[in-house]
Design brief:
The chain is an alpha+beta fold. It has 2 domains: about 1-30; about 30-235, Glucose Permease (Domain IIA) (Distorted Sandwich). Helix content is about 25%, strand content about 25%. The protein has 5 helices and 13 strands. The strands form 3 sheets. Strands 5, 6, 7, 8, 9, 10, 11, 12 and 13 form a 9-stranded antiparallel beta sheet that branches. Strands 1-2 form a two-stranded antiparallel ribbon. The protein has a two-stranded antiparallel ribbon with strand order 3-4. A hairpin with a 5-residue loop joins strand 1 and strand 2. It is globular and about 45 Å long. Mean pLDDT is about 90; it is low at about 1-30.
Amino acid sequence: MKINYYIGITLLLGACAAPTTSIDIESTTPLKENFLFYIDKDTNLHESDLLTTIKLPSKDYLVPSILNLLPNARRDYRSGSHQGIDFSAPLNTPITAVSGGIVVRSNPQHIDVDLDTYNTFLSTSAELGKTPDDIYQYILLGKSVVIDHGYTITSKFRTISVYAHLSNIAEGILPGTIVEQGTVIGFSGNTGTSDGALKNNKGAHLHWEMYFDDTGGRYFLGQNIPSNYLQSNIEALFDE
């Protein structure tokens, strides 16, 4: 019996020691609550780094809670991942600049390709195992506007915002145009999607992205943020 007793004590002490080791490992992992993106300890953006908050791109539609509509979600149909937010704004909902800046891109002349051509581009993405930048920018975003906010949102990164799948771009929104926060820049739609290729009015929404540039590269809102923090961290960016 003594042998069994000592074996039991040894096993119990071993089991009790295991969680301590696990806690030590986990304590070295940075908590990502209140971060807008996190690459490493030197490259990240915390809520406290913001110089200002911004407005929602459509005041009646909040940041969704569904993970598939948020950054980091898989987009298997194009062999890529989502780097933006899909706001469920119905067709022709006015879309506004989230903050002041200069228009970098505006393509009101965009015409959707037919469905066969659209699917050919997706097949190319599947063969490559990623979405090529040219297909993404010039086909899948549809009618879109890009605004440079400079360093007005945070001094750590140059910031840009992207508004995609628009049905139309507002008159006068051209490259070089200075816009103020709340300026109507376009209207929600489905250009750049399979429904757009079919020329119907289904699936309209706003696909919106925000990127942060520094000398090391470009990072997207929500990058590397765990799903349990994602919605609340992104909401910290907006003045609701």
